[in-house]
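Can anyone check this?
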Amino acid sequence: MADIFTEAVKLYGLRKYDESLRRLESILVSDGQDVDLDVIYYIGLCYVRISKPDEAMQFFEQIVTVCKDEKRCNQCRLILAVLYVQTGRFTLADYELRKLLQNGCQTVPVLTVLGYAAWAQKRTNEAVDWYAKALEIEPDNATALNGYGYVLACDSKDLTRALSLCRKALEISPESAAYLDSIAWVYYKLGLLKEAKSYIKKAKARNPKHDEILNHYRIIYEQMADNSRSSIQGR
């Protein structure tokens, strides 16, 4: 089984998540109750990668329940917190994040997820505070920069600051669909539709199925169409 696990991890690293999952689940069937927690961990990761959060949560919850490795347990709590936010299970997300803080995990990844969770629950000021704390520790953290800028843009607050933050995040990770979307949204909020269109097209090209990107794409293009009609009618 060790050889199968090694092969599965290699496939995961190659982003062949379905193939990796098939091998990992074959170990699960063979080993039954005695399955190694590393196998369960990678099964959970595979389900995350193929966008099946409900399935992923089951495996990470198993690890959190029985794992004695504090580092691995905290990793799983953080992943669970993100999945809970994504699926609207905010009470569970807040519980896992509180546990992480109680365990002394005030790391940048934890702080950025706290910001994400607060923003998802419309606690904008709290979200800004968490992202700011993350940037105090790591000023060039792209996730924190983008999250902070996006929250400001969504709330139409300090758009100049939002643009600066999102630009810096995009400089660090120029291929990120999320960061392209964020800067497009800042430009939209600033009324700079030409720039917004340029970035949202790139975001959509990189992640054509993401609901929020598609929504921003629709809004930006509709606004451009409305402006064009108004211009014609005003002649």
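Reply from J.R.: I decoded it. Residues 211-233 form the longest helix (23 residues).
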